Amino acid sequence: MAKLVSATQMLQKAVEGKYAVAQININNLEWTKAAVTTAQENNSPIILGVTEGAGKYMGGFKTVVGMVEGMLVELNITVPVAVHLDHGSKNAANACIDAGFSSIMYDGSHESIEDNVANTKKFAEICAAKGLSLEAEVGSIGGEEDGVIGKGECACPDECKMIADLGITMLAAGIGNIHGAYPADWEGLNFDVLGAIKGKIGDLPLVLHGGTGIPAEQIQKAISLGVAKINVNTECQWAFQKATRQYIEEGKDQSGKGFDPRKLLEPGYLAIKATIKEKMELFGSVNKA
Ligand code: 13P
Predict the structure, then answer these.
(1) What is the pTM of this model?
(2) Residues noted as catalytic
(3) Is 236 exposed, middle or buried (0-12, 13-18, 19+ CB in 10 A)?
């Protein structure tokens, strides 16, 4: 029976092979099915990101695990799939460990570095004992992600080293990246900071949040400097919204009964799949399962 896996092995392979695994944030059944089937069709590993808000919306973290595990079996998904808490608080991280998530992000970037170190260390011990992968964060990602707001300051390479040495699996470091749309005057990713961080932490996989709308050359340069996981959410939302709106505007409802919910959601589902495929091709994870 197909089972969830941690992100550890898939990210180590990605660092060695110089590509990145996509973290696709999921919000409902359609998002989840789009992510796992597209991963299978492209023979690519995938990480399903779940924010606290999305977990709550889907009926709780245990519901998410049940839904994904059910899909792995019923849809014959054999590529590596991890279910990963995105930007977790301490409470959410504990709840997701209990619920059977295979990967956890504890985001202590809003705390002092001392508290971030102390809390990350605790989660590193728990996750190691349970065989789960752990992501930590230094330097906040700009913009808003499901209620978590970051100012977007670049991470300090020495602080990255302090967190990297705690036994984590992957490190998210702010390098000028932003959640959501990038403003027209965005200066781009700060590769000097990324290079300095890489120099301190060696081969520990780096995570790039805010993967929507970063130009392809910058994505490729980031991967060459050790980024092995790239998170994408907003671009799937845009694709879903555009396709759904178009379907409604075409007025294909069932005379008097309203829209058939499955038909209504299908164009959005297909649009998300196309977006994920594009990302897997850009990140280089196709045929890397
Ligand atoms: P975007 O919404 O900008 O794609 O970022 C997603 C993300 O980083 C999730 O943690």
Answers:
(1) 0.95
(2) 86
(3) buried
